[in-house]
Amino acid sequence: MPIDLVLVLAILLAAVVMFAINTPRMDVVAVMVMVTLPFTGVISVPEALSGFSDSNVILIAALFVIGEALVRTGITQKLGDWVAARAGHSEARLIFFLMVGACTLGSIVSSTGVVAIFIPMVLRIARTASIATGRLMMPLSVAALISGMLTLVATPPNLIVHGELVRRGEDGFGFFDFTPFGLPILALAIVYMIAMRRFIGGAVLAPPDPTRRSLGDWEEEFDLTRRILRLRLEEGSTLTGRPLSELDLRAREGVNIVAVERNGRGAGIGRPRADTVLHPGDVLVIDAMENGFDADGLCARSGACAQPLEGGWFSDRARHIGLAQAMVPPTSPLVGQTVTQARIRSRHDLAVIGLKHGAHAVPGALREEVLRPGDTLLLMGPWHAIRRLQGTRGEVVMLDLPGEADNVAPEAARAPWALLVIGLMVLGMVLGILPNVQVVMIACLMLGLLGCITMAGAYNSMHMKSLVLIIGMLPFSIALERTGGVAMAADALVALAGETSPRMLLAAIFVTTSVFSLFISNTATAVLMAPVAMAVADALGISPYPFAMTVALAASAAFMTPVSSPVNTLVLGPGGYKFLDFVRIGVPFTLITLVVVVAMVPWVLPF
């Protein structure tokens, strides 16, 4: 064995060991590989850094931005709502719609991101329907992994295998070339997970998130169910048909309106403005602790009906209106002013509905309460106003946002534009009018121009750890091919399976890729196995496409352990799983996937 091949294999073995023990971090290992490989003399420094200019790396980074735009515009949340509405309280229907929804979304954006988005929704549904979270989290992770088998852009391994084909002078894969394999596997997975749900294991009840306070917690802490009252305006109410400025309810009735809840046309919860005209059916959300306020008298005089603030009101409307806690620092100009004098609503579009002096909430009226250093304000208003205040300094210091803030779509009104851009992007990739990377980058620019995503959000959405991992591992394919390692591995696979059995070779490649994925990421596995699989095809003198497709599908079939993929790791805690839960459920389904792949790939992509 040549000495340069020995050196490259030694570096590869060291990288695999570090990946397996997860020390140091995977992206750090990738950087170590980039630094070390040029010292072998096999590749140059520019070749070691060539991943930074690889079009597939740029494409993957741009797809992270696309996924963030879907989150910011609320498209992902609406999909979650659709799943919950269709499923009802049936566990089997919930698993079906959950897997279909996750798989559909994951075919366009990162599967890891899909799971992160769906976990809070699944926990909420599990609590509401009294379903064990352990029966839902694993179907979610399996569907997210299978989403990588649906489209070209669904997962990095697909793009890596496609890029290897193009580098060898082939046309590569089309956008939907993976779909004929992914759909049957998804159908089998749904049947399998519904049939096996009683044996999955994991948590029985949905665990609360101990790291984040919820809106429900703040309702209790500030006693909002006693402080806040809702008044529904009936037909014929004297308050309807006129703007609030004309009604002047604060001066005449002692009413401090903090929000207007509208259920008809223009449904939602809005800030009360001077020009807001009230209509029958509107609900006024008011601070009922104002001095001199007589709710029964106002209802009798104006034709309104008092409604209590049910527990969970804020949580149920978290997408429309938010709460935040802010502290008044000693240097704030608000110190010594009353809540009214501070004019927080007129300047920041936020109403003060709770106040603490130290650890104790003020029980009475707030309008004339004098602000002191260290006071805690509970602010209510639109999420965009809360986030805008979060970025300011001086008057108040934002202390905390509730856990529900993570699921808010700040650009929900721009969802139609995002859907239009995503549709055009998919159409452009299907038709092949421009290179895929150019189509996706144009889509990113359009989403930015249309306000679906900000530059800060775009940069924050890029998972640099994943990108650096891909960049660092790409030089291995060059080094292994140049030293003869790829040809040696191909010869070993051919000798093992027999030269006259291409299907057996597909099975061997699938198993090898799956085994590698147990120890290293499926992205790194695809980088290593793609050139080997194509060298096997060259040795047999047959088409490389079946072998490339097998590598891509096997890289997504990371069902067997909780560390096979970040997708599995994400559901490990919320699902309450043990290591063997994945082994018991994942190994049989991996074998089912192997049978489907070996049977279908040569049929759709002939040798």
Quick recap:
Keywords: Membrane, Repeat, Transmembrane, Transmembrane helix, Transport. By secondary structure, the protein is of the alpha+beta class.
Question: Any overview of this molecule?
Answer:
With 607 residues, this protein is α+β, with helices and mostly antiparallel strands. Among the domains are: 215-316, 2-Layer Sandwich (Alpha-Beta Plaits); 322-401, Alpha-Beta Plaits (2-Layer Sandwich). It has 29 helices and 10 strands. The protein has helices at 3-21, 26-36, 45-48, 55-72, 75-87, 91-106, 111-129, 134-146, 156-167, 179-196, 215-221, 224-227, 244-247, 249-253, 295-302, 313-316, 339-342, 344-348, 383-390, 415-431, 436-449, 455-461, 464-483, 485-497, 502-519, 522-540, 545-556, 566-575, 579-604; strands at 228-233, 257-262, 268-270, 283-287, 304-308, 322-327, 351-357, 360-361, 376-381, 397-400. The chain has a 5-stranded antiparallel β-sheet. A 5-stranded antiparallel β-sheet has the order 8-7-9-6-10. It is elongated, with a radius of gyration of 29 Å. Residues 206-211 have low confidence and may be disordered. It is a multi-pass membrane protein. It is found in: Membrane. GO terms for molecular function: monoatomic cation transmembrane transporter activity.
